[in-house]
Amino acid sequence: xxxxxxxxxxxxxxxxxxxxxxxxxxxxxxxxxxxxxxxxxxxxxxxxxxxxxxxxxxxxxxxxxxxxxxxxxxxxxxxxxxxxxxxxxxxxxxxxxxxxxxxxxxxxxxxxxxxxxxxxxxxxxxxxxxxxxxxxxxxxxxxxxxxxxxxxxxxxxxxxx
Length: 161
Fold this sequence. Notes:
Elements: H1 2-14, H2 17-22, H3 32-43, H4 61-75, H5 80-91, H6 106-139, H7 145-157
């Protein structure tokens, strides 16, 4: 009984759950090479319903329709690039999991880095200003000449231990 449970757990650990559940046997092509191409293309296309999953991983009905369309285009002789171009023409570049690097998508690709860099610079400037403020407020208070003379007198008058 324990061995069965261990084997079952091992089976689930080694099986990619999302891909296992998404592509049903009736969708798969009989030619393993063409099926591998279809899966490769499907992993690069976004599910329009889920938006954060590829159509290969999604169980949505639209994802299934798109997987079938990919297989149909591959059977018609399209290359992987032609299949993707066909879907981009139909649904826009949003259908691609990794949109191309072009002027229209520069903000998408470079935005996170710019935000991170700006935030880092902001933190550094904030820490510098706060450390200067702390030095001026605690370590080196700005005293007038009269205050400095009075402080010197007090220090001189104190008996040393």
